[in-house]
Design a protein that fits this description.
Layout: E1 2-3, E2 9-11, H1 21-29, H2 63-83, H3 85-90, E3 96-108, E4 113-125
Antiparallel strand pairs: 1-2, 3-4
């Protein structure tokens, strides 16, 4: 997912499917919108078939704890990193690095249990 500066989800999908991720982030930072596949709320991705990448997750994780950690990153960790002057100075001229968190929870009606898959991707964009 890509989330704008207001906390609204503006893209759902793999970031590699965006033609110019750097331009997307520039537009969002200016308060503009992005368009294309994955940006419309009515887009429904096709469910992956068994054995394909993205198939049903198998990890045993606590949903509440995962969501709490994601919220904490959004509210505290991310903003603190962005305000850190030492990081800003050291990163001048470097490629942009983005953290893309993917949280997926699936419910199995046969067992009555949910399974969670939570991945953290690092995406580098730029020269």
């Amino acid at each position: 997912m890509i989330i704008d500066t207001n906390g609204k989800i503006v893209f759902k999908g793999h970031p590699a499917n965006r033609p110019d991720l750097e331009a997307d982030f520039d537009a969002l930072l200016k308060g503009e919108t992005i368009t294309g596949a994955g940006t419309e709320s009515e887009d429904k991705p096709e469910e992956p078939k068994q054995g394909e990448e993205g198939q049903a997750p198998t990890k045993e994780l606590e949903p509440a704890q995962c969501l709490k950690e994601i919220d904490n990153f959004h509210k505290e960790v991310g903003p603190a990193l962005q305000k850190n002057e030492k990081i800003k100075e050291n990163s001048k001229g470097m490629v942009r690095a983005f953290c893309v968190m993917v949280y997926e929870e699936k419910y199995d009606p046969n067992t009555g249990k949910s399974s969670i898959d939570w991945k953290n991707y690092r995406v580098l964009v730029g020269k």
